[in-house]
């Protein structure tokens, strides 16, 4: 059931939708999908070459949502304690005191995640899945909301550690930013775009209200059947070795609900599924042949749904 009527949410939805459109020049859809990922309580993987605006998007989103922000540059010598924090002996107290690491921040940008060792990458798994970390046998809760945006450069082949499937599945979406249009680049050269000017009169309480309302957005039997059709076919498709997991299935559901909410509706339509499906499933599918995951995902969608 919707916690708050849509007519009361309409103003908040419009304000944040208008603001997020300005995060990246010529990339309104990318910015909107990043916001949908956040409202769905997921985490985002941005995969693209350097310099196309991945960090700008993360910083702008933090500023827009009023969240505290930290950027972690991943390197091969980074240790799990550099993310989680460490316990240091305090002579005055005669005991070890835990000093929190950068993961205790609402929006964490993990830059070039595939440059960190598998040991350090795995330190992110519990925080992303459970919203908590464990150090020296003690569990610490992370702030709520907690949103990880990780970036990686697909063109890099030296000094990188590819993410395992288990960690890829922890990301609710994978987005490719892409190069801006000529008009957008002209605006950049002329200095017409300054991400520091992006502001939104939004408080964290309003954000939390939106997030609470996502799960109440209605899904008809038709929408449920559409989700099940694509999930089940992905597990029995000749082009796919590993299909969509139950976690991936639930990601499709909640992201379609978030998209509907941002569109001003309290019910999901097939168009909502169409807008979010590729970013949600493309990184979860393992092709049976040497074919790009994105191509396989697009093929799967075209075979199951006739839009």
What's the topology here?
Blueprint: H1 6-20, H2 28-39, E1 44-47, H3 54-65, E2 69-73, H4 80-84, E3 85-90, E4 95-100, E5 107-111, H5 118-130, E6 132-135, E7 138-141, E8 147-152, H6 165-168, E9 173-175, H7 182-190, H8 204-214, H9 221-234, E10 240-242, H10 246-262, H11 270-281, E11 286-287, H12 293-304
Parallel strand pairs: 1-8, 1-9, 2-5, 5-8
Antiparallel strand pairs: 3-4, 6-7, 10-11
Helix pairs in contact: 2-10, 8-10, 9-10, 10-11
Give the uncertain stretches in residue-range form: none
Strand content range? 15-25%
- CATH superfamily assignment of the largest domain? P-loop containing nucleotide triphosphate hydrolases
What class would the helix/strand composition place it in?
A: alpha/beta
Distance between the termini: 29 Å
Main sheet, how many strands, which sense, barrel?
A: 5 strands, parallel
- Roughly how many Å is the radius of gyration? 20 Å
CATH classification class of the largest domain: Alpha Beta
Mean pLDDT: 86
* CATH domain fold name of the largest domain: Rossmann fold
How many individual domains?
2
* Helix content, binned percent: 40-55%
DSSP E strands, number = 11
In which order are the strands of the major sheet placed?
2-5-8-1-9
The outline comes out as globular
Number of helices: 12
Helix and strand sequence: HHEHEHEEEHEEEHEHHHEHHEH
